[in-house]
Amino acid sequence: MSRMTNRPLPGPSAQSPSREDGPDGAEPGAAALPAARRGAGSGPAKGASPAPVTAAARPGRRGGGGRRSPLARGGWTPWLYLAPALVVIGGLLVYPVYQLGLISFLEYTQAQVSGGEPATFQGFGNYTTLFGDPQFWQVLLATVLFAGACVVSTLAVGCALAVLLTRVRAVPRLALMLAALGAWATPAVTGSTVWLLLFDPDFGPVNRILGLGDHSWTYGRYSAFALVLLEVVWCSFPFVMVTVYAGIRAVPAEVLEAASLDGASQWRIWRSVLAPMLRPILVVVTIQSVIWDFKVFTQIYVMTGGGGIAGQNLVLNVYAYQKAFASSQYSLGSAIGVVMLLILLAVTLVYLRLIRRQGEEL
Amino acid sequence: MKTEGFVRDFARRSVQRPWRLAAEASALLIAAVVAFPLYWMVLSAFKPAGEIESTEPRPWTLDPTVDSFRRVFGQQEFGRYFLNSLVVAVTVVAVSALIAFLAATAVTRFRFRFRTTLLIMFLIAQMVPVEALTIPLFFQMRDLGQLNTLGALILPHIAFSLPFAIWMLRGFVKAVPEALEEAAYIDGASRTRFLWQILFPLVFPGLVATSVFSFISAWNDFLFAKSFIISDTSQSTLPMALLVFYKPDDPDWGGVMAASTVMTIPVLIFFVLVQRRLVSGLGGAVKD
């Protein structure tokens, strides 16, 4: 976080009216919201230490009576509106999570699935088996490293290109935007097979261009992971690029104008004005990337033929799938699922803390 | 659009001419690199069989043919798979948009007990690794009698896209001023009328941005189709149809690329339709 200068850059209250010039009809109204509330989340005035700002934002937080909309006196109405969502999420997301946990404590194989034998309680037996298997630790490590590499590369490429988009005129910008949307739109299975063809040792153009002869990318462990990584970055950087670009575009003109009138350098404007304002967006795209990249399934499954030669390219998801559906060890597969769930839960808690620290109202 | 104009001027003024030209040249080059896989996909779909299997691949073809497409559509029930995929994606998008709109309205326009708790639950629900739920969902779908039907693909995807959709729509609903709501009631509108005739159209750009994510997740689905549609293949979807041509040892590249092209087109059309709203929508939602 960067410290604000003493220069009188417009504070949150000055910038909120300018949000009015958002591109669609829904946004003009945003300006009508109390300035204090809007400023709390995203203003550059957050400054060096977030804590006091959070405290300052608090009065507006609980949403005092004045902000209460007529809808707010709803009684049971909000629950009525929420009912469909709660039923669907409860039945098809929460309940399966509970079942996942349950199965991971049972002995659950083909015999139990077909109803031939009753499921017996195993306690932590499945977890002991899992944690005692060196392959599990190897897959876990590979998953974390692979997802980490994907996240870092996606963010780096996405942010760099978002900045590039702001520096070019309409035609190159449109070209890059359309290409990125095309990559984003490509379904995972399709993208996987196309990249396999591009890097095919016999018929692919990449080896010809790079002069690699008939080098096989999917044979070696690291080159196979690298190939999947390239595909994952290709199809996921557009989300980061478009979002960050939209965020930069939404920065009020007055703020940048004032900064440059005050003689702030390019770098200074990026560091002291744009970066803090983009922080909420950066947090969102980072977390989303972590979640998506940690759960990559299709690309690995298709590109490495179900996990690579002798399972060298397994990640947790594919590993769980192989355990459950290929070798009918449903309880082991579920235990792997629970491990993934716990890791992602930890990420979520970090995210929540970040949001809270920014003083955003939930 | 004042903001954009200024950012552009800002960029123009502050970046020296040669640098800007270099930036534009690299933007075009990067665009070409990013688009290359798609170009190669379409090109290979139109290449005659002998030419794809050439060890000297050429970036053009002298005699384009639709043989590969003919093979794809000649495959048993490819059209059916295509339709199935479309039904799944459209249903998921429409149903989850409606449910998410109602839920997002509830959590932004009302104050009630457990509101914050619910929001946090939605956030946590986003993080659930869907793929890990394949096992319990398999049993659940079996018990509900949905195995081998499109329902087994539609129902879970609605549930998975909801938390993210609600979280994202929240920003849009929030941005609609409460004064507008008060005015509507003063003018005698009912709550239902306000909800559907005023709030819904205003939030529509947000719904569009949200629907991109649910459309892609449903259209891309590979794992559920693979796991839940096991015996009745007429209920299968495009990703499975594509894999008919992709045998790791001896792939029919022409067929794979033609099927890939067909599979990508609906998403591209969808993206072109929502493109402008997507960029503005993402900015609006995320900045919140």
UniProtKB/TrEMBL annotation, chain B:
Keywords: Cell membrane, Membrane, Transmembrane, Transmembrane helix, Transport. The keyword Cell inner membrane does not apply. Gene3D superfamilies: MetI-like (1.10.3720.10). One of its GO terms (biological process) is transmembrane transport. The chain crosses the membrane at residues 21-42, 81-106, 118-139, 151-173, 194-219, 253-274. It is a multi-pass membrane protein. Pfam families: BPD_transp_1. GO terms for cellular component: plasma membrane. Residues 82-274 form the ABC transmembrane type-1 domain. PANTHER family: INNER MEMBRANE ABC TRANSPORTER PERMEASE PROTEIN YCJP, MALTOSE TRANSPORT SYSTEM PERMEASE-RELATED. This is Carbohydrate ABC transporter permease. It comes from Streptomyces liliifuscus.
